[in-house]
Amino acid sequence: MSDSLPMESRTGLIGSLLSRAESEGLYAVLRFEERRGRSVAVEGEKVDAVESIFAGGLGVQVFTDTGHNGFAAVDDPGEDRSHAALERAMAAARAAEEAGLSAMPGILRAEKTVGRHVPDVPYAFDHLTVGEMREATVAFARLALEAAGDLAVRTGFGLSRSDWRIARSDGTDVTFSIPRSHAGVVVTARRDGQAVRTNASVPATSYETILDEEPRGKLVARTTRAAALARDLLDAPSYPAGTVPLLIDFALAKGLAHEAFGHAAETDGLTSSILGDGGRFRTGEMFGGENVTIIDESFEADNAFQPFSGNGVPRRRAVILDHGVLKEALADVHTADRAGTPVTGAGRLSGFGVPPLPRMTNIRLEVDDPFPVPGGKDFYDWTPEEVRDLLVTAGDLPDGRKVLFLSGYRGGQVNPALGDFVFNSTAMYELTRDSVTLYKPGIFSGRIEAALHSIERGYGPLRLDAAGTCGKAGQGVPSSGGSHHFLLMSENDDIRIGGRS
Fold first, then answer.
1. pTM of the full predicted structure?
2. pLDDT of 32-75, one tens digit each?
């Protein structure tokens, strides 16, 4: 179901603010936001925390005709408070111009956009009261406890909706809504002072994960598998450090594309990025295998959905790497010119109180001619033995070859200037033609370019729902993405597995 946005009543205020800026010969961008959120955390069957938030306000960014800007923000944006914020932003823009600070004139040439995007969702935000949501989460927590057996379980459910209206002096006026929800379970196995944690989750847009049978059943099944893995990991040995052919799943591939590559392609950081040369994007240069393409794109009902940028520019598909060749950066109206790349509407922001920055939405890594997998088989139904059999069928696991299968993304660190990355997985399996051996999770590290040149093959269709939160410059925004079910990477001296030597 879809409904109206609360800030659609702000038309009169928007008109008076833009008129005031025009009277001073200044250009204004107005960003109204109203955000609602609810969350419940359950430890076992006991409710640990219940939160409900309602927040909103106005961010005002003002530009002089030279592109110098000032910013101010205010919550509870009534007429007087909004005009006071505008006056502060206008004063700051003039001060920036007088001080000779960096200018960003690109916004003055941006095309006018008028649009509205309110996604349909199965349930309205107020379909349940906070109390009803609490009870539904506790009911699901009981199912998760049963699925996990004797292990400790923490269950969480969160729902949010951000409504936006962005208007500019050139007549741009866009409104949109971003609905999200997330249900997750953390399972903990303990023995002899050792603790192993695994997790299961399902992203969605409203209450469907705790109310509807199909998504609820998926999360219960994933919890069962997470619990079994946690038990097995207690007895698993560590894998020796070194280099070996790798198989990574779509979640780790999303981490590779997002952390190790996507951030390096954001145009506000090209002066210190391996993908930049003197602040210019290295368009046309080879940076990966000819079979590899990396694309960023916003999808409706996705965790990272955003139809318009924080500057009111339509978000468009960006082909960052096209069959190994750098093509388009993640560029907003402010930084595209100096990066020498087209605007892709990449400006995102965590809330009305901050200016937008170039950011990813849903980023994916595609490989030409992926090997097919059985139709109708969900990724989470694959066992390690079936993954091994898939490689054997594809001819990628001959006698004498070992492949290390890394499953599950558990975060990591990247240095965009050097192109180095370090990731953590949930589990590792050594696959041979005749055996599958589980090992404790280890570190997957290396260099971006080496990793992209090492990709041999993809298996199965694209899966793009690996969800998370991306942090940058103190702003956290939802992220997502993925790849084919699995990616095979050849052994490379610049890609290593950590562990005991």
1. 0.95
2. 999 999 999 999 999 999 999 999 999 999 999 999 999 999 99
Cα(83)–Cα(19) distance, rounded to whole angstroms?
A: 11
Q: Would you tell me the crossing angle of helices 130-148 and 213-234 to the nearest 10 degrees?
A: 40
Would you say the C-alpha torsion 311, 316, 321, 322 has a positive or negative sign? Answer: negative
The residues with which 406 forms a beta bridge, in sequence order, are 248, 428
498/493: higher pLDDT? 493
Q: How far is CA 286 from the centre of its chain?
A: 26
Asked whether the predicted pLDDT for residue 3 surpasses 70, the reply is no
The pair phi, psi for residue 296, each rounded to 5°, is: -115, 135
Looking at residue 7, its pLDDT comes to 81
**Pairing outcome for strands 468-472 and 152-168:** unpaired
How far is residue 61's CA from residue 166's CA, in Å, rounded to a whole number? 11
How far, in Å, CA of 352 to CA of 465, rounded?
26
Q: Tell me the pLDDT tens digit for each residue of 68-82.
A: 999 999 999 999 999
User: Which phi and psi (to 5°) does residue 475 adopt?
Assistant: -105, 130
d(CA 233, CA 113): 53
Q: Residue 315 — pLDDT band, cuts 50, 70, 90?
A: very high
Given a contact cutoff of 8 angstroms between Cβ atoms, the answer to whether 416 and 263 are in contact is yes
DSSP state letters, 416-460? TTTTEEEEEEEEEEEE-SS-EEEE---EEEEEHHHHHHHEEEEEE
458: tokens are 């993809």
Q: Which residues have CB under 8 Å from 62's CB, separation 6+?
A: 21, 26, 27, 28, 29, 69, 70, 71, 86, 89, 90, 92, 93
Structure tokens at 72: 């101010």
pLDDT in tens, 263-292: 999 999 999 999 999 999 999 999 999 999
The Cα–Cα gap between 461 and 100 comes to 52
- Listed residue (74, 42, 307) closest to 178, CA to CA: 307
